[in-house]
Amino acid sequence: MGTLNFLLDTHTFLWAAHDDARLSYTAKKAIEEKNKNIYVSAVSAYEIMNKHRIGKLPEYDYVAENYIEIIGEFGASELPINMQHSHFAGKFDWTHRDPFDRLLAAQAAIDNLVLITNDPVFKELPWLTILW
Questions:
Q1: Model confidence over 20-76: pLDDT tens digits?
Q2: pLDDT value of position 54
Q3: Is 0.90 surpassed by the pTM of this model?
Q4: Rounded distance, CA 87 to CA 106, Å?
Q5: Residue 107: HSE in the Cβ half-sphere, 13 Å Cα cutoff
Q6: Which region holds residue 9: left if phi is over 0, alpha if psi is between -120 and 50, else beta?
Q7: Using CB atoms within 10 A of its CB, is residue 29 exposed (0-12), middle (13-18) or buried (19+)?
Q8: What is the CATH number for 69?
Q9: Is 44 helix (H, G, I), strand (E, B) or coil?
């Protein structure tokens, strides 16, 4: 088996970092897999910090304040947003308007990553590979 390449949805990152019971067994095993590459998008950093700043994620204070260290503990890599991601996120046909989700979907598709998410909205994209 080759190396597995995963992109964590924002809630997946939060739940994994917080050892939340909502994280599925399959997702947890994928994150713990030895032969894998895990990426956390720069868009997740913005989403978490923005929501934390306005009081929407009070239970994740530790994650917000220790974001970079937690990524390192996961053995994950940052996935920057580039022009190709932004261009595709803005143009592909999808009624879902959330800019964070659009960017994550674009990054997963362009960089050939499996998106670890339980958000059902991503199932509308037949070209996206999802794991939960």
A1: 999 999 999 999 988 899 999 999 999 999 999 999 999 999 999 999 999 999 889
A2: 96
A3: yes
A4: 9
A5: 25
A6: beta
A7: exposed
A8: 3.40.50.1010
A9: helix
Distance from C-alpha of 86 to C-alpha of 81, rounded to nearest angstrom? 7
Q: Between the CA of residue 46 and those of 72, 92, 98, 126, what are the distances in Å?
A: 17, 22, 13, 27
Alpha helices in 1-132 (DSSP H): 10-17, 25-32, 42-53, 61-65, 67-74, 83-91, 99-110
- Tell me the residue range of the domain where 48 lies: 4-131
The label of the residue with tokens 């994740």 reads 60
Report how far apart, in Å, the C-alpha atoms of 120 and of each of 59, 62, 115, 123, 126 are: 23, 27, 12, 6, 12
Contacts of 76 (CB under 8 A, 6+ apart): 8, 38, 39, 40
Residue with tokens 């939060």: 14
The one-letter code for the residue type at 131 is L
* Total domains present in the chain: 1
How many residues belong to the chain?
132
